[in-house]
Amino acid sequence: MESGSTIMDPICLVENQNNQLTVNPKALKILDQISQPVVVVAIAGLYRTGKSFLMNRLAGQNHGFRLGSTVRSETKGIWMWCVPHPSKESHTLVLLDTEGLGDVEKGDSRNDSWIFALAVLLSSIFVYNSMNTINHQALEQLHYVTELTELIRTTSSASSDEVQHSAEFVSFFPDFVWAVRDFMLELELDGYPITEDEYLENALKLIPGKNPKIRNSNMPRECIRKFFPKRKCFVFDRPTSDKKLLLHIEEVPDNQLDENFQKQSKNFCSYIFTHAKSKTLREGITVTGGRLGTLVVAYIDAINSGGVPCLENAVITLAERENSAAVQKAADHYSEQMAQRLRLPTDTLQELLEVHAACEMEAIAIFLGHSFKDDKQTFQKKLVDIMEKKKDVFMIQNEEASVKYCQAELKKLSESLMKSISGGTFFVPGGHSLYLEARSKFEQDYKLVPRKGVKANEVFQSFLQSQAGVEEAILKADKALTDGDKAMAVECAKKHAAEREQQLLREKLNEEEQKMAAQERSFKENMTQLEEKVDRERENLLREQEAMLKHKLKMQEELLTEGFKKEVEELNKEIDQLKEDIEMTKNNTSIKISEVLDMASMALVAVLPVRRLETTFKSLCHILVK
């Protein structure tokens, strides 16, 4: 389902058996195959209110999620349907149909609360489905929203209380849509027509008064207004007035459905497709299918262990998995690109190091693009270590390819010289001079061979050393030379051999300098890309905080207008704290980035062997001076 091009059948994601929630491994496998960002639409509401029918319409199908025609709740747990997104390219639409709330056959009402909380946590747009009208009873039935403060934590910190946690819900909660089914009223208020959204906002206005009943009645209103800044309402006529058709509504073609219902459901679907955003976590972390599966498991594990789902813990769990995968993805890209771009042997070491630098830069970008919460740079350090080892392997392969190629070329070029030596051509008076002439031509021919690689001189030097005994024998046999001439020739040969050794040392010294420069480039590239990422994350956090502040200031204005001074005072504390947080994010930017980079610097220096190279470099310099 990589491209989201195939349509699967709905499958149970979270099973609810004997009041025990479990995750379906088959559903996780499907999610794991979706590497695209997901737009998650979850629906919740009382049982037997047509939730599944509405979700099937989002999938563009009449059949899919099972519908029921009796008083028994049909959907159990949370069912999932993954379909290609109809308007967002390279996105998958994940529909979550939840078990009906308030089913009389359930033994534990707490189960409903968990189902509701999971639907909120997993979705990017949350649809609450109810019947007839938004009145006092409808809001009382939505008491689950008031329990979210007890069922969800933002951080694992034991010092923070429910109020602190709930103040931050707005930063990661989904958009809220209230779908009112079988709506029979006129959309009017005080004799004036109103929109569906105005109808919802009017219903969410707090009731004046301080007695316990009014306070309890206001709690769902307060929570919806506080937790869900973006709200939308849709009202639906009954799909058909024919009761027989209603019993098998999935079989009814669209042209037999009520015209108003057709128009309303079309508007609903259009809004969801256009406005439902990709699922993200705090600080802009994009959720893919695989990541969604990890979150489901983390939340269900927390519930089953007797705790509550904690966003911070879930993100840490997700980061461990995703960062490991990001390391592998980046390392694989590095290996593949190095293998494709390198033509061994390279003419110079610098050529290999430049290819390495380009591939490394791409790999770092891939890693940083897929990783998050790698606060101690543990995974980035692991990637750098892997790439260093892979680079060393490529360098060894490059050297081996150069040796093999040079030896083969030397064998071909030296055939004539070897024949002359074995045929005694040079073992005559004046033979040494003839030998030097022939060897000089052989050397020139070897120099003209292209792309011999990094071991060209070393292999040639080794070849000449193997011929030292031959030259000595030819020199001894040359009767045209005096003893003085021979002594001079020996000294000359020694001098040339020493010069060649010095040349090899200079080449090694140059190679070490190039390696050190490559290590420094690698270090700077890692730090530059990391600094850019830290800066992006800070900007995401600042945007998130400013959006929260905007929402709370709007709430403050509404409460003041409605005359709820006490509620405004409590909200003011949250606003003041948020303003402090925003100032800290703005003012501590350079300090925070500096701390992260210092930590990263220490981690990367431990991996990049610059000091070892410096030691080798100094040793070679010392030998050259001698």
What percent of residues adopt helix (DSSP H or I)?
55-70%
List low-pLDDT spans.
Answer: 68-74, 620-626
SS-based structural class?
alpha/beta
Q: Strand percentage, roughly?
A: 5-15%
Average pLDDT works out at: 81
> Biggest β-sheet: count, sense, barrel?
8 strands, mixed
Overall shape: elongated
Give an overview of the whole structure.
The protein has helices spanning 25-32, 51-58, 110-122, 136-141, 148-151, 162-167, 196-203, 212-227, 243-247, 259-275, 289-304, 311-341, 349-370, 378-413, 415-422, 431-447, 456-466, 468-477, 483-562, 565-587, 589-607, 610-625, and strands at residues 11-17, 20-23, 38-45, 78-84, 92-98, 125-131, 175-181, 188-189, 192-193, 231-235. The protein has 626 residues and is an alpha/beta fold. The protein has an eight-stranded mixed sheet, sandwiched between helices. The longest helix is centred in the C-terminal third of the chain and has 80 residues, at 483-562.
Descriptors:
alpha/beta; two-stranded antiparallel sheet; single chain; 10 strands; 626 residues
Task: Compose a concise summary of this entry.
This protein is an alpha/beta fold. It has helices at 25-32, 51-58, 110-122, 136-141, 148-151, 162-167, 196-203, 212-227, 243-247, 259-275, 289-304, 311-341, 349-370, 378-413, 415-422, 431-447, 456-466, 468-477, 483-562, 565-587, 589-607, 610-625; strands at 11-17, 20-23, 38-45, 78-84, 92-98, 125-131, 175-181, 188-189, 192-193, 231-235. The chain has 22 helices and 10 strands.
Task: Give the topology, please.
Blueprint: E1 11-17, E2 20-23, H1 25-32, E3 38-45, H2 51-58, E4 78-84, E5 92-98, H3 110-122, E6 125-131, H4 136-141, H5 148-151, H6 162-167, E7 175-181, E8 188-189, E9 192-193, H7 196-203, H8 212-227, E10 231-235, H9 243-247, H10 259-275, H11 289-304, H12 311-341, H13 349-370, H14 378-413, H15 415-422, H16 431-447, H17 456-466, H18 468-477, H19 483-562, H20 565-587, H21 589-607, H22 610-625
Parallel strand pairs: 3-5, 3-6, 6-7, 7-10
Antiparallel strand pairs: 1-2, 1-4, 4-5, 8-9
Helix pairs in contact: 1-11, 11-12, 12-13, 12-14, 13-14, 13-19, 14-17, 14-21, 17-19, 19-20, 19-21, 19-22
